[in-house]
Write a structure and sequence with these properties.
By secondary structure, the chain is of the alpha/beta class. It has 6 helices and 8 strands; from the N terminus they run βαβααβαβαββββα. Strands 1, 2, 3, 4, 5 and 6 form a 6-stranded parallel sheet that branches. The longest helix is centred in the C-terminal third of the chain and has 24 residues, at 157-180.
Length: 184
């Protein structure tokens, strides 16, 4: 069974972006993938800030990345880029830690003004980490993920359609690479 790890770079575990993550995870599990998640905000702050590569929590998180056939990198957009907490974790991923993996970025921002943050802020860092097959990604606007009167989060149909297309591409490419034995 192919493995996918989600790197959740939001500093808040109650963020609406979690609804996007849960949507993606449910879709991938239905497709037969094993899905794990790294909530970077749950990793020890001291380990992240002081780049403690040998930390048990960091070693475990990097192990999930190493074992994965594909990686989904998720972040809200802050100041025209991904979050600092995500950057601190990416700094701890081994130099070629994303080599041989399909990578799907999922970002959410307040407006379309930062639509290109995936291309200009994240993709260069992913490339340095060895990623060579980076999918186009999905950029969601806050208004597409809203809390309803019951306190649940609804994902707009238009966003669901774009997520479905991206997840389909991720699934197909990952299955193709696994079948061919392409690994890091």
């Amino acid at each position: 069974m192919a493995k996918i790890v989600v790197i959740n770079g939001t500093p808040s575990l109650v963020s609406r972006i979690n609804a996007v993550i849960e949507y993606a995870e449910a879709d991938l599990v239905r497709r037969g993938f094993e899905v794990d998640r790294i909530n970077v905000a749950e990793l020890p702050a001291e380990d992240l800030i002081h780049t403690k590569f040998e930390s048990e929590a960091i070693v475990k998180a990097n192990g999930l990345v190493a074992e994965a056939d594909a990686v989904i990198v998720v972040s809200p957009v802050y100041k025209a880029s991904y979050t600092g907490v995500l950057k601190t974790f990416l700094d701890l991923v081994p130099q070629k830690g994303l080599a041989g993996k399909v990578v799907l970025p999922l970002f959410m921002g307040g407006s379309l003004a930062h639509l290109l943050s995936i291309d200009y802020a994240l993709k260069p860092v992913l490339s340095v980490l060895g990623a060579r097959y980076i999918l186009g990604g999905v950029y969601a606007v806050d208004s597409q993920v809203v809390r309803n009167d019951q306190g649940q989060v609804d994902v707009a149909e238009e966003l669901q359609l774009r997520l479905n297309a991206a997840l389909e591409e991720l699934a197909e490419e990952t299955e193709h690479r696994v079948a061919r034995g392409v690994k890091a």
